[in-house]
Write a sequence for this structure.
């Protein structure tokens, strides 16, 4: 509360100072500049009782809604009169975890400098529980002997499992002449915090433990762009350097089920030892350089060519951690062939676009795009590896590299049949060449397209597009002996698609506009015995905005979406891999309704405004599954394991009501009173009621919980 | 296509296109046969100047004068159009003013709702000055092809939004005029921070044109995602091939009812492709908590985006 008083006093002081400053300088100018600006500050409070800390995960997922005083918004602008030079400093939500500040200075047409500091929390959980000690970042130990399940369930709560994203953005652009435009950008994203991480130990009972991954990431992104533009042609060069740095390279956790490393039991293929702890690698540091060159030329007959070439070089060479930290695993075959990946990927892309209007009523567009992902990293062969710090597997294991090429060409012809009616016909062709390391070496997709645009008047617009497509593959060769020969991975197999899009916009009067859209897509994976077989989705939406008077605006929209997918599989247990009675089919359906209604009204013109809107989003996901035949032919346990059943629906509902009353008084003062109601409810059988001890596994129990929050915000603003 | 061929092909097509068309282009302004391509200069006799416009359009001009564009036009820095700001965009106004004004009188170029000027002609006016940045790829872009007018998304005559003079209160509302489904998706359980105003449509998309599909700002979907999630870029020792090809194989970046914006709930998402043996192939029952609860498959296979652990073959390390 002391902090709140100090902040409130500071804010009040700022308002008073700005008021004095504005009165003093508004007429006389500040350093020869005209000034303008605004400042608003206030406080936020919860009506009724505060949501419990463990209910806040979803409420404050990306924002800070603590009960406190805060500086809602401030801005000070300076402007020279003779030359249009502008200087602006400002910010919002100062003092909060999601605060933002900016500084800009511009001489229009000559230079522009911008700096922005932006913060955002990413809150994963406020209800996690974890037992043990963190002896250093990312190293989690447990007592010996290991705690019991009851002790894990009684573990202390973690107030916040979150990663804070702080971003600094700099941008300078300079136009030395009408033709030249130079710009430099630098973004620095700093992520700090933690997020849940699961670590498998595999024994006893194939167990795992969920711990926290420390997030200490820095992303530096530097970009330089130069453009040269004449009326008939333009050239653009761009260089981008992106660096990712991770302060930690691994996470270590004790096995909650074993305090000692078990004796090594040799087998024909290697052997195993129950680990007392495990270690996993975190994302390695990496660097990407990207150069691109683009050109554009205006030709006769309203013809324009755009072309661009880009090459990106990605590098990663972080030192590997050892195969295992289990001291009882023999290391004879575990010497690393090399200390780091020497990772190197080249990404090349080339684009060519030609647009021409040879006749007044005919527009032709041709595009070609080539994209190459060339993973030139070392192909490392390991003589052995260790599964989950537990199982030694001898025998060469190759870390494959996956490269691919992608070509896409398209042609469109748009014919203005009548003044209000245009017909567009076109065709896309896309080829993926993934090489012999993937199941389908080459896939080709052909997408003819026809669309109709009808605009009988400026008040009516219809657009409709139908674009079926067919994807064909040359051959499908499973790449793993474990993989079922009848599986067809959805991204690599043949597919027939039907896609329809419809949009209409009506503006019967200037004060009323409405639109309706409809989208439908059906994907049929006709050759997939196993895998995704069918996928279908549709959505319909409508939008309305009506201003019956110049003081009142009513608005609303509604969207209904449905997604359906069907997949097939076969339960394959050891020794009973090909039992057709173990086939099962899963159908998943999502139904989502989203609606918004609201109004803005000027109760007293230029004095008192009232605004309110209500959003609702209802989502339901249902996973159903069945066996075409009753599973038989194995042991009772195997038959049970192969039996498919429906899962309970996963449902979410978000209700959000927001309203404010804004009153202007004096020449420059504004008082604003806002009320926000948010009610969130989710039923998810996978996470509801999770406690740390779940079977033989230990989890954080960190699912976001339901909440209802009534929040009021009062702010006082001053504008000059 | 073999390695290296693509680079060579790209260079050749690019070079040939430049070589073939550049001489024609550079020669074009000198050629007397290219008159149709020359932009007609604004005839001084047909212009009246802003002072005349102001006689009837005082309110509009008062609002316009507060915009950055007005400040620039009146700045005398480069344009030389300071006395003809209105006619720079609306065309010569003498016929309109001499006929006494009125909607549709004098063949002016009109913008916004109720505009009778075709979108292509309206946009050509804007592109006279605003052809840089991502407008570089405007011609032939999806919005150009659909004849979307600049003023469908931007306001010009008054200060509208803090940045970019949008026609609606925010980017997502502006884009949502047509992309209603995408606007609705931000309200989903699992979403990027669009509704919290920490991201915008233009964080990933370039509505004025782009070299990529879906008007992405980056060169590919993954490249766009890596700009904030660079930890997923790799290359990793153990790659998960579909991840390197497209993040959208598993994620819907506009929002989802599933955790982490997945296109399907786990374990069904993973089971679309993993028909091998053992637990990935079993339909799972409610009692199989390890494979269903909490992070489901990722309880153990945490590093599905790629692992740099020597024993990370199955993405459990």
């Amino acid at each position: 509360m002391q902090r709140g008083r100090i902040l409130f006093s500071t804010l009040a002081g700022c308002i008073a100072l700005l008021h004095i400053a504005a009165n003093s300088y508004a007429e006389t100018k500040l350093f020869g500049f005209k000034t303008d600006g605004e400042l608003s500050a206030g406080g936020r409070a919860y009506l009724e009782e505060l949501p419990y800390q463990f209910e806040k995960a979803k409420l404050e997922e990306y924002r800070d809604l603590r009960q406190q005083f805060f500086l809602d918004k401030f801005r000070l602008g300076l402007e020279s009169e003779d030359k249009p030079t502008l200087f602006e400093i400002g910010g919002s939500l100062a003092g909060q975890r999601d605060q933002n500040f900016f500084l800009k200075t511009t001489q229009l047409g000559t230079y522009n400098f911008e700096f922005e500091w932006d913060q955002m929390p990413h809150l994963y959980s406020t209800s996690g529980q974890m037992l043990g000690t963190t002896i250093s970042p990312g190293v989690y130990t447990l007592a010996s002997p290991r705690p019991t399940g009851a002790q894990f369930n009684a573990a202390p709560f973690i107030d916040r499992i979150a990663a804070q994203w702080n971003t600094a953005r700099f941008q300078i652009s300079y136009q030395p002449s009408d033709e030249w435009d130079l710009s430099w950008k630098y973004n620095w994203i700093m992520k700090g915090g933690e997020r849940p991480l699961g670590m498998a130990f595999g024994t006893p009972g194939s167990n795992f433990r969920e711990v926290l991954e420390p997030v200490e990431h820095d992303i530096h992104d530097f970009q330089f762009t130069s453009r040269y533009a004449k009326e008939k042609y333009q050239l653009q060069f761009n260089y981008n350097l992106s660096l990712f740095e991770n302060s930690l390279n691994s996470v270590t956790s004790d096995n909650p089920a074993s305090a000692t490393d078990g004796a090594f039991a040799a087998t024909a293929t290697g052997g195993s030892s129950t680990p007392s702890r495990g270690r996993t690698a975190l994302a390695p540091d990496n660097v990407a350089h990207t150069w691109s060159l683009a050109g554009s030329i205006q030709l006769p007959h309203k013809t324009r060519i755009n072309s661009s070439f880009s090459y990106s070089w990605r590098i990663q060479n972080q030192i590997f951690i050892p195969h295992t930290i289990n001291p009882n695993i023999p290391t004879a075959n575990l010497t690393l062939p090399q200390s780091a990946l020497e990772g190197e990927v080249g990404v090349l892309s080339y684009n060519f676009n030609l647009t021409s209007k040879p006749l007044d009523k005919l527009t032709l567009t041709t595009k070609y795009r080539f994209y190459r992902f060339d993973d030139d990293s070392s192909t490392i062969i390991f003589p052995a590896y260790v599964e989950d710090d537990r199982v030694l597997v001898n025998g060469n294991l190759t870390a494959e590299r996956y490269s691919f090429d992608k070509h896409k060409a398209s042609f469109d012809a748009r014919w203005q049949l009548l003044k209000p009616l245009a017909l567009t016909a076109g065709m896309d062709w896309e080829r993926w060449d993934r090489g012999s390391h993937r199941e389908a070496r080459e896939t080709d997709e052909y997408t003819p397209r026809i669309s109709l645009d009808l605009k009988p008047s400026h008040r009516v617009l219809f657009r409709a597009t139908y674009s079926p497509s067919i994807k064909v593959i040359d051959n499908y060769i499973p790449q793993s002996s474990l993989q079922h020969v009848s599986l067809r991975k959805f991204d690599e197999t043949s597919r027939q698609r039907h896609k329809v899009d419809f949009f209409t916009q009506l503006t019967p009067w200037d004060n009323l506009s409405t639109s309706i859209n409809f989208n439908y897509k059906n994907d049929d994976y006709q050759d997939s015995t196993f895998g995704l077989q069918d996928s279908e989705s549709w959505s319909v939406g409508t939008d309305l905005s009506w201003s019956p008077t110049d003081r009142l605006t009513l608005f609303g929209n509604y969207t209904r979406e449905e997604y359906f997918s069907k997949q097939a599989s076969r339960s394959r247990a050891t020794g009973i891999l090909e039992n057709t009675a173990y086939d099962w089919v899963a159908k998943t359906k999502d139904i989502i309704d989203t609606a918004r209604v609201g109004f803005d009204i000027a109760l007293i013109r230029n004095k008192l405004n009232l605004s309110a809107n209500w959003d609702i989003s209802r989502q339901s996901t249902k996973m159903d599954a069945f066996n075409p035949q009753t599973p038989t032919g194995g042991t009772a346990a195997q038959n049970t394991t192969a039996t498919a059943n429906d899962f309970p629906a996963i449902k979410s509902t978000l209700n959000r009501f927001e309203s404010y009353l804004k009153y202007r008084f004096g020449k420059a003062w504004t008082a604003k009173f806002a009320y926000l109601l948010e009610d969130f409810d989710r039923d998810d059988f996978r996470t509801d009621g999770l406690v740390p001890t779940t079977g033989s596994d230990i989890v954080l129990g960190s699912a976001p919980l339901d909440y209802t929050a009534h929040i009021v915000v009062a702010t006082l603003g001053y504008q000059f | 296509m073999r390695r290296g061929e693509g680079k060579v092909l790209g260079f050749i097509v690019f070079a040939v296109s430049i070589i073939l068309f550049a001489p024609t282009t550079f020669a074009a302004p000198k050629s007397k046969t290219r008159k149709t391509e020359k932009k007609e200069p604004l005839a001084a006799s047909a212009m009246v100047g802003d002072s005349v416009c102001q006689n009837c359009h005082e309110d509009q001009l008062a609002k316009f004068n507060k915009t950055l564009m007005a400040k620039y036009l009146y700045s005398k820095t480069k344009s030389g159009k300071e006395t003809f700001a209105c006619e720079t965009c609306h065309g010569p106004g003498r016929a309109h003013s001499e006929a006494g004004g009125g909607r549709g009188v004098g063949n002016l170029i009109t913008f916004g709702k109720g505009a009778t000027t075709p979108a292509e002609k309206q946009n050509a006016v804007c592109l006279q000055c605003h052809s840089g940045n991502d407008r570089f790829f405007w011609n032939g872009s999806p919005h150009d092809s659909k004849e979307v007018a600049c003023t469908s998304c931007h306001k010009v005559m008054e200060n509208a939004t803090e940045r970019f003079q949008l026609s609606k209160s925010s980017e997502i509302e502006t884009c949502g005029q047509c992309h209603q489904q995408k606007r609705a998706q931000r309200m989903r359980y699992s979403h990027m921070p669009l509704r919290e105003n920490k991201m915008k449509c233009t964080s990933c998309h370039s509505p004025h044109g782009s070299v990529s599909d879906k008007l992405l700002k980056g060169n590919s979907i993954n490249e766009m995602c890596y700009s904030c999630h660079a930890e997923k870029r790799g290359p990793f020792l153990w790659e998960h091939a579909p991840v390197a090809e497209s993040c959208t194989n598993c994620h819907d970046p506009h929002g989802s009812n599933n955790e982490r914006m997945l296109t399907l709930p786990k374990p069904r998402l993973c089971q679309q492709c993993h028909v091998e043996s053992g637990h990935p192939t079993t339909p799972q029952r409610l009692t199989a908590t390890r494979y269903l609860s909490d992070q489901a498959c990722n309880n153990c296979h945490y590093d599905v985006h790629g692992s740099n652990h020597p024993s990370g073959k199955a993405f459990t390390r």
